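Researcher: Re-running this chain for the archive, since the previous output was lost when a drive failed. Same request as before.
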Amino acid sequence: MKALTIWQPWAWAIAEEFKPIENRSWRPSGLMLGKRIAIHTGKKCDDRKSFEFVREQCVAPVPAAGQLVYGAVIATAVLDSFVTDSENPWFFGPWGWVLRDVQKVKPVFVRGFQCLWEFDERLLVPA
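Model: Regenerated C-alpha cells:
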C-alpha cells in the first residue's frame, strides 16, 4: 500500500473526516485513483496559522500540537480523484487530492518519506 506523509494538524483533520482534500504540488498518478492509501503524520507540525484555520473549519475541538500523534500512520483513505480548482475551503492547490472513505487505525509508528512511499498494510489495526 502507498502512504503519504502529512504534517499535523492536517493529518488529524483528514483522519477525523473534516479535511476531504489534501493539497500537493504534484498530480497523483492515474494508477493511484481509486486505491486506498495510508495517511502518515510527519514528525513536524505546521505553523500556528494552520491550527487556526483547522479550528475554524472543524466542528470538533482540535487537539493542541503536543497532544497530536507524530511519525505514525493514523488512517487510510481512498484517493478518489484530483482537482485543480475547487470552492472547498480545504483546497489551496495547485493539486487537490480528493479523499473518501477515511478509516482511522491504531497508530503505527514508522518513518515517513517524501512523495508516495510503500507501507506494509499488514501492520494496520482498526481503531
